[in-house]
Design brief:
2 copies of one chain form a homodimer. Chain A is mainly alpha-helical. Chain A is built from 7 helices and 3 strands. The structure holds a DNA duplex.
DNA sequence: TTGACATAGTTAGCTACCTAACTATAATGG
DNA sequence: CCATTATAGTTAGGTAGCTAACTATGTCAA
């Protein structure tokens, strides 16, 4: 996935006015709100990232472990993992390299198709999740509780509308 | 800025139930909503990223050019740019390397303090912005118009509340 | 049955982010 | 006035993402 804007210094209305002189009428509110949404998304993501990093995981690795734990035999393939976590196969190769190096997953050959191999969650990998998840879930609950169920519903609804309309950038 | 989750495969309620067996009561709605918010943030960011990439810019570089254009003399320093765009000085060094290589900015010595130097937006850099910005602003406007002013106001309000509460991850 | 195409994974080389350690210069205070 | 501390920028080495090109294997159809 691409990196996300980290603007600590959003433009104020004055600056946007100056840009408008060059580029014509600008919907100042729309621009400020759009950039703010991107920035808050970054902030939330970084909050989670810091939490995971302090527990020896990073977002990409954490998600791979979770995907493996979902499987009944704790096993999957690089392609499947790449597709489910939404990264390229090349990126997944490197994530697995790091996880295998740390002993959190293990590569296992596949007899039926020699192009493939399997990735299995190890006991150490499960143990790492067992440290993280019982701290993760209550925090998410505590955070989301700041909004009522109806508010959360509406927030998602509106974000989804924006996402659909983000086609304008195509 | 850190990378953001790219989960294409959010857990369903069944899977979260399985996890609950191991980790105790989980607020399934809260977790799904939180992950969805992160994911939509990524999607919006990637939409902008793709738009910029097709015009020869990436988010980090685009923002540096904009920060320079805001200045009356089109000039700033690496430290200032790093602080305003929220990246480390090391990252800014590399962004400037790339921009200077492409001729979009220029490094200029500083007589008064020989540790410093200035970065100035070049004519080519201004031209690049002049290609991008007149296409950027109307698109943002068109996208945000899917929500009423009141809805946008409320969306921001609720996101800000979540951001404040993201302290739970500290 | 073999030649063409498809699939699985890796490698190489790029961007962009980080921290920590480094160099050079400036500022300050005994 | 010089030793310490602070500041500006770079470098080194790490993670995480991408595309494109590659190897190896499997599949399928003429």
């Amino acid at each position: 996935m691409g990196a996300m804007l980290q603007l600590k210094d959003l433009p104020d209305a004055l600056i946007l006015g100056k840009f408008a002189d060059r580029y014509g009428a600008v919907d100042v509110d729309a621009v400020l709100q759009f950039l703010s949404i991107l920035r808050i998304g970054t902030d939330l993501s970084e909050a989670l990232d810091g939490f995971l990093a302090r527990r020896g995981l990073l977002q990409g690795r954490w998600w791979v472990l979770i995907l493996l734990m979902r499987e009944d035999d704790l096993t999957s393939t690089p392609s499947e993992l790449a597709e489910k976590s939404g990264v390229s196969r090349a990126t997944m190769t490197r994530l697995i390299d790091g996880l295998a190096r740390d002993g959190l997953v293990k590569r296992l050959g596949d007899r039926s198709d020699r192009r493939k191999y399997s990735i299995r969650l190890t006991a150490a990998g499960q143990a790492r999740l067992d440290e993280v998840m019982p701290e993760y879930y209550p925090r998410v609950k505590r955070m989301m509780k700041v909004l009522s169920a109806a508010q959360r519903e509406q927030l998602l609804q509106n974000l989804l509308l924006l996402k659909e309309r983000s086609k304008v950038f195509q």
